[in-house]
Design a protein that fits this description.
206 residues; four-stranded antiparallel sheet
């Protein structure tokens, strides 16, 4: 059971909401995305709506049910706030920004969702155990090329599942039973995973 954030049309609030001191919101006209955070200021570039909802509500894209299309961004946002703003206060500021500037409202409900399961193939494990280097290499990196993502580096199976989940339609559950870190190089896309899911669900699927 997952908490699903829905984007709707009306919302009633009784308590005053925390707000950014000053905020600029524009539709992004260039590719790529980045984040810069300084005390009292945050500058994000190229964030689609699901990424903003993650900042505001702590939800993953697969937990969001709402409108799609041009309203989904991506957006460039520059905002200022008191230097000692807490994480909880910052979330409230993001929520108020999305309501005031993008006209978004929300409610939470509980739904059952499908999920992907990460297991070891019947043909056996092909990943190689990670080797410790001196000096140590960065644990792993995620890169984006068009609609595809690549995960490369040193990860445990649990961390791999957690890294995959935000970029897919459904969460990924680690059921490999593996321990330790492995050297991983994986390129995938939502479309690729959807096609595999549909093939497995079809009567003629293997």
């Amino acid at each position: 059971m997952l908490m699903v954030l829905c984007v709707g049309a009306q919302e009633q609030r009784s308590a005053p909401a925390k707000e950014f001191d000053v905020a600029s919101v524009k539709v992004s006209s260039t590719g790529g995305h980045s984040t810069r955070r300084d005390p009292g200021r945050i500058d994000i570039h190229g964030y689609p709506l699901p990424a903003l909802l993650r900042l505001a509500y702590g939800v993953e894209p697969y937990q969001i049910d709402g409108p799609r299309g041009p309203a989904g961004g991506p957006f460039d946002i520059v905002a200022t706030m008191p230097a000692r703003t807490t994480t909880e206060e910052l979330q409230q500021m993001w929520q108020q920004l999305l309501r005031a500037r993008l006209g978004l409202v929300s409610h939470q409900e509980t739904r059952s969702l499908p999920m992907y399961v990460l297991t070891v193939s019947k043909a056996g494990l092909k990943m190689k155990p990670a080797v410790t280097t001196v000096p140590p290499e960065p644990p792993y990196a995620v890169s984006f090329t068009g609609s595809s993502q690549t995960i490369r580096g040193r990860l445990s199976s649990g961390l791999l599942a957690g890294t995959l989940s935000p970029n897919l339609d459904y969460p990924v559950l680690d059921q490999t039973g593996l321990t330790g870190d492995y050297q991983i190089a994986l390129t995938y896309s939502r479309a690729m995973m959807r096609a595999q899911h549909d093939a497995n669900d079809s009567p003629d699927g293997a």
